[in-house]
Amino acid sequence: MKKIVIRRSIQFIWLIGVLWSQVSVTASVDVDRISKNETLGFKIVAVNADATPNVNISPILQHFKIVSGPAQQTNIQWVNGAMTSSRSLSWTLLPKKDGKLNIPSLAVTIGKQTYRTNPIGIQVQKGAGRSQMAHLFIEAKPDKEQAFPGEQVTVTYRLFTRVNLSIENIEYPKSVGFWNEDLRVSQTVRFRDTQIQGVGYKVATLYKAAMFPTQTGRLTIAPMTVTCNVDKPRRNRSGGVFDDPFFNSMFRETQRQFIVSDSLIVEVASYPKTPPADFTGAVGQFEIESWVDTPNVKVNEAITYKVRVKGTGNPNQFNLSEISFPQNMEVFPPTISFKRDEFRDDLTGEQQMDYILIPRSAGNFRLNPVTLTYFNPEIEDFVTARSTPVQITVKPGDKSIIASTQFNREDVTMIGDDIRYIRKDTPKWRQKGQQSIPIWVWGTYVMAAALFIFPGIFTKMSDNRLSTADIRKSRGALKQALKELSKPKEDIFSHTALVIYRYFQSKLFLSSDNLDPLAIELSLKGRVPSDLMTEIVKVTQLCDAGRFGPHASESEDTLQSQVENILTKIDEALA
To answer: In the CATH scheme, what is the code of domain 136-268?
Structure first.
């Protein structure tokens, strides 16, 4: 009994000590000097706390990015019969810029009490460039550093590496002051060999985007962050059983690394002139045309009025001027479609709007031209594109047809109930008592047999056809190309370039959809005579240059026959 009293007294005294012990909150980091591409561990520890700390971490986000966390941990220690408890929260942080950064004092709430942590200074050295981190880096390369509002700036992000790695995550740049259009987002990263100053690298294009400035001034394109696992070199211990390369490949060690590209600065200048009143933000080079499917109709017959805008620029950032239609025409909201040219880095394509018009009275009507005022950055001036006017002749409609349309749904229903159709065909008679098997019974048996036999035959034929699909496509590439070339098209240069690229993609079993004259030249090198390779490269360059060139019509007459002749010769050389 005496031992029990002593034991409980000790427990009571210990409990009083814990309740009256001082609660302290501290903050710490595992390293205070890092480079921009390295992470640091940040921990907040609350000693003798009776609840999990609640921390407002938002002040850190100005200079640091949270990679992971918070991770919670509880620790209890006994020292000389006294217990000490601590609760901690930890994060992994990545600096957003270099220089002297500060983790400010944070508010930590435990129960109803609020505590403040100590501020911590972090020295972040400038991100390692090619000289310091020559084995792994990201190159962010813009096609221009000065632009006007709405002018496209193409940025390409490429990963260079000399070590084996696997990409875990890609954080694409999100920049303020830009409207972004993805040109290429790599679902699977494919590396190819290259050299920089005689040093071999593997390079892969991770991302390509079209950036359109929406404001003037000095704008910053945010960096791209890539999280990857890099193979760590192992120290060889000779004489071990597991030194065989087979075991090294199975038990390799990796290190998690964060690669950050450089931020890009783009100087966006104001327009050299005051924009016209009808300017809605179009920047680039555009053409506009309009037409109707039929110019001669009757009253209450529908007309399709089509407006097409094609060119290179920012097609999703502007509106056409308001189109005025005659008052005695009923106009329905347009259907809008956009078709992009996938073979160009410049955002090129055509946008078409289809209006349904229904004239309610007869007469001759004129649809006024549709205008588009855009800024051409090449000549640094505003240009107005204008379509041709459209004439429509509406004749009076059939009076009987017009009168027949005056019935409502209730009238049509009553007519259907009052009038029943009389069967006029001669019935087929069969002698009473005669037995015959109906044709639907025979048909059921035949269909059952077909469903049992045909799937196996069809599967075998389908597998054989799929296995030879690429070969058949390659053999018929020339025939398909000549067939497509013979079809009349409004834009012969764009159509011819598309036919050429599709021919080589099918003929040479190319997997990439983004082909250009350089890719064609590399694919044909050593496989066809040099004069044929030079001719086809010149033709593809002519098509790309002639799409919106002022002298495009000079080569239209001979372009089709020239391409047919060259493709025929190349096909014979590749056979």
So the answer is: 2.60.40
Tokens of 469: 């699909």
- Cβ atoms of 362 and 396 within 8 Å: the answer is yes
Report the b/e string of 314-343 with b at 16+ CB within 10 A: bbebbebeebeebeebeeeeeeeeeeebeb
At 240, the pLDDT band (50, 70, 90 cuts) reads low
Q: What percentage of the chain reaches a pLDDT higher than 70?
A: 79
Which residues are CB-neighbours of 363 under 8 A, at least 6 positions away? Answer: 328, 394
Distant-in-sequence, close-in-space partners of 360: CB < 8 Å, separation ≥ 6: 299, 300, 328, 329, 330
Do residues 265 and 147 make contact, with C-beta atoms less than 8 angstroms apart?
Answer: no
Distance between CA atoms of residues 28 and 51, nearest Å: 20
Q: What is the pLDDT of residues 488-521, one digit of tens each?
A: 777 777 888 888 888 887 877 776 666 777 777 7
Q: What is the mean pLDDT of residues 246-262?
A: 71
Whether 212 contacts 152, CB under 8 Å = yes
CB atoms closer than 10 angstroms to residue 463:
10
Report the range of poorest mean pLDDT among 187-191, 294-298, 337-341, 551-555.
551-555
Q: How far apart are the first and last CA of the chain?
A: 105
Distance CA 572, CA 556 (A): 25
The CATH number of the structural domain formed by 283-395 is 2.60.40.740
- What region, left, alpha or beta, does residue 300 occupy, with left being phi > 0 and alpha being psi -120 to 50 degrees? left
Q: What is the dihedral of CA 46, 48, 52, 57, to 10 degrees?
A: -20
User: Given this model, what pLDDT does residue 403 score?
Assistant: 44
- Within 13 Å and on the Cβ side, how many CA atoms surround 275? 17
CATH fold for the domain made of 2-125: Immunoglobulin-like (2.60.40)
Rounded to an integer, what distance in angstroms lies between the CA atom of residue 58 and that of residue 56? 6
Q: Please give the mean pLDDT across all residues of the chain.
A: 79
Q: Which amino acid is at 293?
A: D
**Cβ atoms of residues 309 and 320 within 8 Å:** yes
DSSP H or E segment with residue 255: strand 254-260
Asked if the domains 2-125 and 136-268 are classified in one and the same CATH topology, the answer is yes
| CA 153 vs CA 150, 183, 345, 503, 510: distances in Å | 9, 12, 10, 31, 29
For residue 70, whether the previous peptide bond is cis, meaning omega lies within 30 degrees of 0, is yes
How do the domains of the chain map onto residue ranges?
Answer: 2-125, 136-268, 283-395, 471-574
- Alpha helix (H) ranges present in 243-329? 245-250
For 547-566, what is the mean pLDDT? 68
Relative to beta strand 64-79, strand 82-95 is antiparallel
* Bridge-based pairing state of the strands 120-125 and 99-103: antiparallel
Report pLDDT for 523. Answer: 77
**Interatomic CA distance for residues 301 and 360, integer angstroms:** 9
